[in-house]
């Protein structure tokens, strides 16, 4: 490379995506501690040219991230909405942990907290060491929503119009869901069971899982609590009752509502 010539990997052009993201971030950060600011104040505090700040603000106003009132700007309702979702998710996570530990102690099964992410479920938390192998069952692991009990528990709480784009990769076993028609039939069974989804070796050979959605039908939370264990030892009915009760208790705790927690039934696993 010639001396004095800068590589595109080490320098960004003014209109590059990374540079633009940095500018938007620096602009939004100036609102921390300042409810309303003028264009001149925003440009000065964000260290941006006035024309650039004005152009970015105009686009953020169109998107609802920023609102303009006369000569002043403030954060918009879209930012509040996104922030509220983060707070709700964190509140849910903190509310879940005591119930997840109690559920693990009373059942001896592994407990997962999962959320719907596009067409997959993402496992956020796990209490229990089994299964020892299988990356898709660990925190951070993903499974197709149509294949997993947690995914189907969440989907059963949504109208089909609200479903994300679902994929139907070849299931790991002959018991897995293969088509949208099969999925619809399974979701009807989930609703008939009071919102409890059951997967017997459909997602992974040798594993049975039961799950219940957390929160009301049609809500924006899209999270589920599930139990899993060796297929030959999990008592499906008792495990389903336990996870449904715990999911309801978690929702009340996360919402700050007073409710006497129901007693989670102890489970006697088959030998």
From TrEMBL:
PROSITE patterns: HTH_ICLR, ICLR_ED. Gene3D superfamilies: 3.30.450.40, Winged helix-like DNA-binding domain superfamily/Winged helix DNA-binding domain. GO terms for molecular function: DNA binding; DNA-binding transcription factor activity. GO terms for biological process: glycerol metabolic process; negative regulation of DNA-templated transcription. Keywords: DNA-binding, Glycerol metabolism, Transcription, Transcription regulation. InterPro entries: GAF-like_dom_sf, HTH_MetabolicPath_Reg, Tscrpt_reg_IclR_C, Tscrpt_reg_IclR_N, WH-like_DNA-bd_sf, WH_DNA-bd_sf. Residues 78-263 form the IclR-ED domain. It comes from the Bacteria. Pfam families: HTH_IclR (PF09339), IclR_C (PF01614). The keyword Transcription regulation applies. Residues 18-77 form the HTH iclR-type domain. May be an activator protein for the gylABX operon. This is Glycerol operon regulatory protein.
């Amino acid at each position: 490379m010639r001396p004095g010539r800068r590589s595109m990997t080490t320098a960004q052009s003014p209109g590059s995506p990374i540079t633009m993201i940095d500018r938007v971030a620096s602009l939004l950060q100036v609102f921390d501690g300042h409810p309303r600011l003028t264009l001149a104040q925003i440009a000065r505090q964000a260290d941006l040219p006035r024309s650039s700040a004005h152009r970015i603000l105009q686009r953020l106003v169109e998107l609802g991230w920023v609102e303009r009132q006369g000569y002043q700007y403030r954060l918009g309702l879209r930012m509040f909405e996104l922030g509220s979702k983060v707070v709700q998710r964190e509140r849910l996570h903190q509310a879940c942990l005591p119930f997840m530990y109690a559920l693990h102690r009373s059942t001896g099964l592994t407990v997962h907290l999962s959320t719907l992410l596009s067409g997959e479920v993402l496992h956020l938390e796990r209490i229990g060491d089994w299964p020892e192998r299988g990356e898709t069952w660990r925190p951070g692991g993903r499974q197709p929503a149509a294949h997993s009990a947690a995914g189907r528990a969440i989907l059963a709480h949504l109208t089909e119009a609200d479903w994300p784009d679902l994929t139907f990769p070849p299931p790991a076993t002959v018991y897995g869901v293969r088509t949208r028609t099969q999925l619809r039939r399974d979701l009807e069974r989930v609703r008939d069971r009071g919102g409890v989804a059951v997967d017997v070796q459909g997602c992974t050979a040798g594993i049975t899982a039961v799950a219940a959605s957390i929160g009301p039908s049609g809500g924006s939370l899209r999270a589920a609590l599930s139990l899993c264990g060796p297929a030959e030892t999990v008592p499906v009915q008792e495990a389903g009752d336990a996870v449904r009760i715990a999911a309801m208790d978690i929702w009340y705790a996360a919402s700050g509502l007073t409710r006497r927690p129901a007693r989670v039934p102890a489970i006697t696993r088959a030998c």
